[in-house]
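seq:
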Amino acid sequence: MKSAQFVIHKILLITSMLLFCSPAMSAESPQRGTITGGVAHEAPSWFKESFLEIADDVEEATEEGKHVLLFFQLNGCPYCDRMLEESFEAEPLTSFIQEHFDSIAINVRGDREIVFNEEISVTEKELSEMLKVRATPAIVFLDKDNKTVVRVNGYRAPERFRHVLEYVASQSYQNTKLADYLQAKLERDVYTLKENPLFTELTDLSSVKGPLMVILEDGSCYDCKEFHEGILAHPLVQKEIAPFTIVRLNADSDQALIGVDGKPTTPRTMAQKHQMFYRPGVLAFNEGELIRRHDSLTFPHHFKESMRFTAGGFYKKQDYRSYSEQRTEELLSQGITIDLGRPKVSN
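struct:
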């Protein structure tokens, strides 16, 4: 009897030690991660104090020989901050924008009422949904008839944005496509295409069966250095792009290619087909299907998650917005810090 009691006592003691001393059992749940890199940036004070009756704003602008510029922004958006800082609050673009545009800020999650025209009266966030604003800043230019003539999705370097502004201000949209205008206006000696060990030399894109990334560059690329050094070289990005075959194309080239669909094409034709105006542009395919399209500079966190969404096949079960929300919660719950900020590159 005494021996049995001794055995029971030992079992209880060992169980107690396992419960309170085992690292697996005693470790506290990880502290929740945080989101950094977002920047609160108010629109410049000279933006129009609009009553958000857009048709009236367009009429007033037209009388003054201007266009209306709608700046769709999100609180804490690092891309909005950078574009406001570099283009709207720095010369020579500040004066040019003030002279030729009435600029109105729209909060994509805002609740202010907007009377867009006689048929449409919605909140800011409802208008953003109607216009499918998926990236901020989104900049919409309106003509005298309150029709969209140009839309810019995401960040643009000031040197490239200048040409968009001039295209609208000169009303060149009446007889010229934006792509053709930029082709004629952009300087071609800004950047020399550089080799990268990540790139694969390939002329038959249809031969790639898994994830395929096509990078479009040319000599007008103001942001290619930052893309190579701050994004492609980022350790977290490299982890997510590892499954990809990566092909870099000169978007000014008429080199003969076989496209993803198996049909003859060229880099120039590819860029035009997918309406890629920004350099570097990125097209992300999987199993021959275009999944993600980056026609603006994307900072490391968003870029790596876009590539993970593509390579991991998450697009088969959910849209990117749902994926992004779920992934954000997953990372934060694991105690991981999410840095939304711009990459660090050498001067």
